Amino acid sequence: MAKPLSEYNRKRDFNITAEPSGSAPAGKRKASALSFVIQKHDARNLHYDFRLELDGVLKSWAVPKGPSLDPSQKRLAVHVEDHPLSYGAFEGSIPAGQYGAGDVIVWDRGVWQPHDDPHKAYAAGKLKFTLVGEKLSGDWALVRTRLRASGDKQQWLLIKEKDTQARPAADYDIVEAEPKSVLSDASVGTSKVDKPKPKPKRRATAQKAAADLPEHFTPQLATLVDRAPEGDWLYEIKFDGYRMLTRIRDGEVRLFTRNGHDWTDRLPRQAKALQALKLKDSWLDGEVVSLNGEGLPDFQALQNAFDIGRSLDIVYYVFDAPFLAGQDMRHKPVEERRAALKSALAGSKSKLLRFSEAFTAHHQDIFESACDLALEGVIGKRRGSPYVSSRNADWIKLKCRLRQEFVIVGYTRPQGSRSGFGALLLAVNDDAGLVYAGRVGTGFDQASLASIHAQLKPLERTSSPLQKPLTSAQARGVHWVEPSLVGEVQFAEWTREGVVRQAAFVALRSDKPAAQIVHEQPRTAKSLKAQPAKKATSGVKITHPERVIDRQSGTQKQQLAQFYDSISEWILPFLRNRPVSLLRAPEGIEGEQFFQKHAERLAIPNITQLDPALDPGHARLMQIDNAQALVGAVQMGTVELHTWGATTDKIETPDLFVLDLDPDPALPWKTMLEAARLSLSVLDELGLDAFVKTSGGKGLHLVVPLARRDGWDTIKAFAKAIAQFMAQQLPERFTATSGPKNRVGKIFIDYLRNARGASTVAAYSVRARPGLPVSVPVSREELEHVRGAQQWTVANLQQRLQALKDDPWAGYANRQKISKKMWDKLGARPPQ
């Protein structure tokens, strides 16, 4: 008998393809729902790979036309070889010459629930099941026919059952209506899909040397400021080009955009020049530009060079080296990294590879000279600062004229003799969706008018993609388009209404996805005041500041302390006057973690130790009341902060309860949002205001503030009654019983956090998980736009906070009381 996945492995060379190698999991499978995934595959012929988890592998069918919600349309499904479970997360490009060469995206995923014994049904050729996915749901069937496809493969039919999710094909075609990935918003056949290149065969002696070099890398980004701040800064030209990162591993050079797309094939001469340096394992950071006759960057010329494939016209300016010659340089000061980089580039004879020099003149003179030369602006880098894979205040940008990217959401008809279009309608993203930002009608020549118009026509749609409708006057004559194109625009200012004035078009940008385009708001120079190299802004000394807390993001201990200090005004209201428990990871989150409820002998700077009478028989409970204590906790290795549901002055009468919606990990996020809506509806029916926050882990927390009246036992019993009520009403969705076996395919409503001594992660606390996600409050109106429990992280939370117009938890007040009527509605009684 063939081994599981032997056919899958036989067809692939894993030294070339980025697909995961196949091995069926050993040992007993953890309790979880059965997963399904549908991958859209642009191979020789576009098709959809339909995969169901069974016996530790993904049973797979190729569906040429994709699924249909119309029960009358029986879609051909050709049975193909089993795939490993890890394949369910694969997106990318299978290289030419390999089996199935072409782009792959995850079109849908979720869980499937067989109606009968799945092994017997599969063997009999008649599988009936329910899908719970991001796109597909309801009842389906896979039925084997007696026909055979090429290579003697079995032919099955994929059929939608008649239920409330079924829709006639004449009314709705789901594969046409929802073409993009549920993971990345990518579409097959576009540059949004990462295209992994062949993996070199590596010698055993080289494996250890490259072990610490990340496979992928996120660049440090600059913060827009209104004027140059005080302090000791290095200033460079702000190049008008594409950000480009270089990975050198085992002598192989790969060039990546800031979003991780491999552009090595588009920059062959630059790659050859880098290879000639003969550097050991490195990551280099820089920008590719095209220079005009005066030696100044010309973005339009750069785009033209890419369009016609003339990499000879492109110069790669390199300005930093987070990894160099096998050494992790991220913790070293910027001036030391740059000196080492300049030395490494000294041997290059190529005119296409240059070091980005810093200027020695006064910053104001540098900035004025840059503007006089019609440059975009300058970049400042704080001396002594480390390299951080996020946007922070150690790198700043000053622009000669306001200039940023916008999402193109529509266009107007041309007037007079003009062809193509009149103006482009612009938008930016905020937490609620796309927001109108004005229009641009200048800066185009005949060639760009024709080229852009040709790209807009296939994207036309009948409705506006904006979150709020325009006035009838603003929308008159507008052709709306799918918001996928990004254009760079320079302009005089933002008006009070949030639209640009005196705008001129620069160029389309293919290196930045539309979902990342926001209103860039400059910070004041005062907010960038230099900090001591080894202290957080609260003045607490941080020992071992360079220690990496999270390898995925590269965040160091010093940076985590500065992050907590920067959000202290947001998090302290949820910490003050409450016992706090700390999750400590002294060696980083990959190392051992400790959960600490009591002070014991640990001397945390500035923390408050509470009265021993609050928790008899134990060491003192702890409390964090100020920024110094918050940063002091980080100094002692803290990552997470958990709080009780009561304040220390009335510790026996809680002032809130929490319902933690904890899903089976296999469930799609759409299911979590539906569960939150249902739970909020029940709380509304009870007459209780509830407030939502992401957990920073897998689910959502519903926080219900209360007047300080009832004791712990009553509050816990009431939360349990809500959980049991929902599990009884919707047993296929919810469970009120803990344990992985009881949560398979369901969401556990965890009410156990409401006991005396239990705690919940605080709002705005970081979580000790890869990427350092944060537990973040959201308004009910925002809930539909939340993309996951880990949407906000240490790297991007500040961007959200700066963009907030209103407190998402406005109206939070501890005045609600649990009444007898509420107990009656739940069919429960309070404890005696």
TrEMBL record:
Name the cofactor(s) required for activity, per the record.
Mn(2+)
Q: Which GO terms describe its biological process?
A: DNA recombination; DNA repair
Residue ranges for the region (Disordered) are: 1-29, 185-212, 522-542
Q: Name one Pfam family in it.
A: LigD_N
What is the E.C. number? 6.5.1.1
Q: Name one GO molecular function term.
A: exonuclease activity
Q: What class of enzyme is it?
A: ligase
Instruction: Enumerate the catalysed reactions.
Output: ATP + (deoxyribonucleotide)n-3'-hydroxyl + 5'-phospho-(deoxyribonucleotide)m = (deoxyribonucleotide)n+m + AMP + diphosphate
Keywords noted in UniProt: ATP-binding, DNA damage, DNA recombination, DNA repair, DNA-binding, DNA-directed DNA polymerase, Exonuclease, Hydrolase, Ligase, Manganese, Metal-binding, Multifunctional enzyme, Nuclease, Nucleotide-binding, Nucleotidyltransferase, Transferase
Where in this chain does the record put each ATP-dependent DNA ligase family profile domain? 311-443
Q: Which InterPro entries does the protein's record reference?
A: DNA_ligase_ATP-dep_C (IPR012309), DNA_ligase_ATP-dep_cent (IPR012310), LigD_ligase_dom (IPR014146), LigD_PE_domain (IPR014144), LigD_pol_dom (IPR014145), NA-bd_OB-fold (IPR012340), NHEJ_ligase_prk (IPR014143), NHEJ_LigD (IPR052171)
User: Would the keyword Metal-binding turn up in this protein's UniProt record?
Assistant: yes
Would the keyword DNA damage be found if you checked this record's keyword annotation?
A: yes
Protein name from the UniProt record? DNA ligase (ATP)
Gene designation: ligD
